[in-house]
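Table S2 (text version). Query chain:
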Amino acid sequence: MSGYCCCNVKQATLRIGVSTVIYGIISIIVTSIWVNDMISRPDKIKRINFLGNLIPTSSYITIGCILIFMSVVYLILACVMVYGHLSRNHRLIMPWLIWSYVTIFLVAVAALILLVINGRWNNSGEIIFVAQLELFLTMCVIVVRKFVSDLKEETGQEII
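Corresponding structure-token output:
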């Protein structure tokens, strides 16, 4: 197995899986607190003006619930991925890969929507953050995909 970032793909995949589990837990907690705060104090939400209309408060709560759902799915798939890594079963890692492809696409779409809603990026920090997030997710997918490919080679299965 080849190496990435001072470790081989097997170790890197395990680190990515464990990091994703930790991220999922933290994300669920933080987003739940955020949604609870919006529900209990809707007057404190900074509303965005989109094409002359203020976006309703319920839209922010809906977005928060979508983020919680995505975090729960990511957490579950990360746990399955870690188990797949430990049991050396590539089929248990594939759902995480597919969901990561979906996440990369959704982050790009969300960034474009924010650009349209705001009419501009508020600052260059937002552009840098989104670019780094997309790059990081893509690198994780590449490493995990290489590990899956190596597992398939070991078992003599066809590589797609």
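Notes on Table S2: The mean pLDDT is 82. The longest helix spans residues 9-40.
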